[in-house]
Amino acid sequence: GRIRSLGVSNYGVHHLDELESYIHELEAQHGKGKGGEISVGQWELHPWLARPDIVGWCRTRGVVIEAYCPIVRGQRFEEPVLKGLGEKYGKTAAQVLLRWSLQKGFVPLPKSVTPSRIEENADIFDFRLTDEEMKLLETGEYAPCSWDPTTSND
Fold this sequence. Notes:
Strand content: 5-15%
Number of strands: 4
Shape: elongated
Order of helices and strands: EHEHEHHEHH
Structural class: alpha/beta
Radius of gyration: 18 Å
């Protein structure tokens, strides 16, 4: 069988361009649709690592964007903007961050093994951040929680 649908993780734009070029080469050899397509990608995404270049690349091609570390491993829960929004909506900082992720059109992938936190993470559909609040969360920072392989030139 041939590969029809590809999922990638931690690809930078240069990696995505390279893979897309290879897909086009395969289509030239084997016919339209025979090179597969990039269907889904997974990246660390949160207000301190919004990756507009990768997100834009994916959106123009209809690639589903999965966000890992959407709650920043709890490292930013004391940020004033998160605390303020949490108080306004009666939500935790984690819930505000997950809501941000959903409203950005991402599929957030929070990690937890604690049943109460898993339930809490799912309780984010009864509020919506305003456009102004979403802008407040646009930090423009580059602050990954861990190593960022998207910057590799390999």
